[in-house]
Amino acid sequence: MNGTNLLDIRDLRVSPRGMTETAILRGVTFSVAPGETLAVVGESGCGKSMASLAVMGLLPPGLERRSGDILFRGEPLPVDDNTAMRKVRGRRIGMVFQEPMAALNPVYTIGHQVAEVILEHEDISAAEARLRVVELLREVGLPSPDRIIDEYPHRLSGGQRQRVVIAMALACKPDLLIADEPTTALDVTVQAQIMRLLKRAQNELGIAIILITHNLGLVAQMADRVVVMYAGHKVEEASVQTLFASPQHPYTQGLLRATPRPGRRRAGGKPLEEIPGMVPAITDPPSGCRFRPRCPRATRECETVHPAVRQVGDTIVACHHPGRLEAVQ
Amino acid sequence: MSYLGKRLVHVVLTVLGIAIINFFLLQLAPGDAADVLAGEAGTADPEYLANLRREFGLDQPMLHQLWAFLQRLFMFDFGYSYRHNMPVSTLIFERIPATLILVGSSIAMALVFGILLGVVAARTAGRLPDKLISLASLLFYATPPFWIGLMMIVVFSVKLGWTPTGGMSDIISNKTGLAYVLDVMRHLALPAITQAVFYLAIYTRLVRAGMLEVLSLEYIRVARAKGISENRIAYHHALRNAIFPLITVAGTNLGAFLGGAVLTETVFSWPGVGRLMFDAMFQRDLNLLLSILVLSSIFVVLVNLAVDLLYALINPTVELR
Ligand SMILES: Nc1ncnc2c1ncn2[C@@H]1O[C@H](COP(=O)(O)OP(=O)(O)O)[C@@H](O)[C@H]1O
Ligand code: SF4
Ligand SMILES: [Mg+2]
Fold it and tell me: Which residues of A touch B241 (CB under 8 A)?
């Protein structure tokens, strides 16, 4: 939004190759300031992962960026130029993925794979890189780093492997870390450890984090700001306090009703409610507002006119009838 | 017992089984060496035949013959070939280098080019190079090797005169050193290519499929997110994993390569064990034939063991038990 942003995504549109009608991202705009944590939330299939892969220039072969700029420190990222992007990936932007069990190459040792990213981007010897790797493994909380460095991935647990992936992502001290559901595949206690690790790394390195998740509990603990996505659109954006205190979009309100919240009364609290219905198929989106078939507040207008993004108080929201809802309080 | 110990017991039992089965199979064939020798001598005199049979032990009960055969086998004594008037072991061991050169170079060719073409095809999947490679491998897969061999003789030897039509080296010019090596290579080219193309086609398809599968895996995306180059991703990250099924299949193909050598060596008059076996078959030199069969089965079983060990060595997720 202004010149001091680390990352600006402007009106990003992504479609399957050769299909002009359907789209996976339909004009998504958001920014990340240096050092902040931006949470991106929404149900599965809303386009969160594709948005982050578009930033890395790593969209799957079947998808392409139709339009929209991605600026890094005010400069357009050369996302269509693989060679140029290689200098960004792993060095300026690190990425952590959802499936730690599948994220490491089974035939190479942990040390080899972490050192690889350092040797790719920095002009240092293999011996120096190894020392750095031992240090990194210690920092991400792996036990006996000088032993585990020579282990193969299959000897590590899911949580340990995710720590290794985080070590790879942080190895070159990037400015931005994109964490795409980093704890979804892990059990709850390990989740909390990994989140603490990310928070600590952020404080020490001053990096910004995009945390993609559908766990609003994590959002409340981790994020400064939140972007809510639905069916390829950003439907709401606000600071984490504003979003939890007064969610404007019916979808956000639905998500909050479906989530146990730390700050919320336990006893006597309303039972959790799922949002009825499902995310529409990208090939067959409803007319007007994409959320209309599931929205308790839908009107005639919602059927014909797609709601534009606008500012309501401290919140950016795309809805014809935004506002507080009794049941959300 | 250690893994290796168990495997070696397995090897011995397999070889024993193969020896016994081959022995009985050959007993089923009509006629024996005595018939052939007598036929060539132009006589059917029963006394002469009986003499021959006694001399070869062919008059003994079948189980006696089997027992004697296994005892000799155990001591690596393969007996005597009356057809060639030479100990069988000398006969076979003389021919082994030629066959090893032929089979070894054709396997190497099939592997190296199969891997290269498979990787290129996978990396250009759906585009022109992939389509050309896939078409070519389909053609080679579907064409009988002996026909490819004959056509290559027609084109390269007869029409173009680039290569000799057969044999392993020039008999007339007595070359030595490097000149000899080059001469053998010139003779080797056609038979080795003939042997290789079918497997080259299989390996290309295998590597292409394996690469496509591995390239879609999460750790490849992770490697890309580290800024690794596409070349390194293909050869260092993907191929290293896509190669495992190839090793397994190539290991089990070894027996087929030896079988193929019978045909190739005959077409190109390559002086190897395959040719020897072919002749032994027609001359009903059953002892020689049986020895070749048993020896090559020992070879195949041992190489399969070596391939399994190699597999475990390069695949850290496999632990030998
Ligand atoms: N390779 C692909 N080709 C076509 N469509 C895809 C591909 N990958 C994902 N999609 C579609 O893109 C949409 C958004 O997916 P994704 O970004 O993974 O969602 P999220 O991360 O929010 O769960 C989904 O509808 C999914 O079906
Ligand atoms: S625009 Fe209408 S249908 Fe869409 S979320 Fe708002 S009220 Fe519901
Ligand atoms: Mg996702």
Answer: 105-107
A94: contact with B, CB 8 A cutoff = yes
Strand order in the sheet with A208-213: A93-96, A176-180, A208-213, A37-41, A225-230, A233-239, A315-317, A310-312
- Counting from 1 in the atom list of ligand 2, the atom nearest the Cα of A307 is 1
The reply to whether ligand 2 has any atom less than 6 angstroms from the CB of A290 is no
pLDDT tens figures, B5-55: 888 898 889 888 988 888 888 777 766 667 766 776 666 777 877 887 777
Yes or no, beta carbons of A90 and B225 under 8 Å apart: yes
CA distance A68 to A57: 13
Rg from Cα positions in chain A: 21
Assessment of whether the complete model's pTM goes beyond 0.90: no
Structure tokens, A37:
């944590």
Sheet holding A7-16, edge to edge: A25-32, A7-16, A63-72, A75-76
Contacts of residue B217 in chain A, CB cutoff 8 Å? 102
ipTM of the prediction: 0.92
Q: Which amino acid is at B242?
A: A
Give the span between the Cα atoms of B128 and B132, in whole angstroms.
6
- Max CA separation in chain B (angstroms): 85
Contact (Cβ atoms closer than 8 angstroms) between residue A139 and residue A167? yes
Q: Is the CB of A149 under 6 A from ligand 1?
A: no
